[in-house]
Records
---
Amino acid sequence: MAKLMVFIDGTWLYSNLRHLAKESNQPGFHIDYGALPKAIAKELCEQNGLGELDLVRTYLFGSYPINYNLVDEDRARKRKDFFTMLREDYHYEVEAFPIDYAERRILHDDREADDPFSPREKCVDIALAASMLYYAAVADGYDIAAAVVGDKDYFPLFQKTRQLGKRIAVISIRQSCAKMYSDRQDVKKLKDYHIIWLNDMIEKIAWSPVEMDVECRSPLHEGGRLTTTTMRLRNGQPYFCEVCRAKFAEQKEEQMREYTSAGINGQMDKEESHEDNAYFDGQVEALIPDRGFGFIKRTDGASFFFHLTHLTNAEWEAVGVGAAVRFTVTKNPIGSKAGAAGEVTMTLETDSSEVTQQ
Ligand SMILES: [Zn+2]
């Protein structure tokens, strides 16, 4: 059985979803990433009369924002949750790279009209190329590489991969595909099959939302807690309703304004900012229970704002002053102004330290 690996340029796919959404006539169109690789394998077989394929693995290459305006935290978190879902639920291999937003809003439309800033993506295409060539060169990698791409930069990769004796299938979107990929003459000799259009597979790859009744876990929630949502919840992650999430964004914006009014907008020390996976130890030093946020004192004495949505493994009600935490930093403190925490995890010592304090 021929072995198939699927390589997805996630950034390209994500930014061109709107074309598929438009054709599907579903404004909330999303791809079912569990179904996508299998649908591609099936389409490849059917269009080319291939026997059954062994779908070995699916790779997705993408990016996630760092150093963005705190108001967009919900959006940034959704991106991270998306990658987690791909890994945990669908067994994708995900390679994701940070994009620095220099304190700006993530969406172009949310930024000032005259702001020349444009986010720079790094590494995504190179990482895809490195993986495809690597598995072409090792024994038992794949026989066919299915590339879900549109940008023209990939053609040397496809040529070299074919020179290693592997077959290339290109899967793309009509409105966003380099001409050479759909060329039936294949002048550049970069593929072994006619191109497959996701446009023609919309029904097979559309995600069908499932409605669920979930309780909002926000301590600030008003009224009945049960709400209907189609949101996918990560294991153990608390659900916050639309209203509460809007409230959270407002609070963070408020916090953000205070931060920027100190005249430090964009003045972050790049050297020490955003070691993405750096964790720090600290203790909860203050809580404002009715607002849903508080402050953490790091072991070096610096203070960090944190919000109840930052908690990874504890309920807001369970957090007490003095509790030991590990946390990531999304903003460094400047002068006497507190910084901001990212993920906040209550550490094991929490229980014992709380006991000794009580
Ligand atoms: Zn709520």
---
Amino acid sequence: MQAAVREFIRNRAKDRCEYCRIPQVAIDASLHVDHVIARQHVDQIDEDTEHLAMACDRCNFYKGTNLSTVDPEGGEIVPLFNPRQDRWETHFTFEGAAIIGLTPIGRATLRLLQMNALNRLELRSWLIEEGIL
Ligand SMILES: [Zn+2]
């Protein structure tokens, strides 16, 4: 991937994970360029920036190649949050250091990506205290 393309994606994401919103400055590992629809699901690898998003290593790992998962409340199969099509604020909100899922897509994505794992809650609490979040 060309450096200019990566830079465009990074700037569009405001240098933070487009799933859990952790800023690059708060984590050691570099943000990954995520294929919103994993390569194995399409015939042609689409490197168009409209199919790419920034993701932290944790969100990228837990998302894997998944396109959908189960809403923990309703039990229905729902698509994962798509940062290129969906507004974050429609599906998620912050309640202190915790991320809350507002919709089936938000709840299901939150659970699959383990956005409220204890270490992330502790990190976000610290970032809030420091005025970074
Ligand atoms: Zn993340």
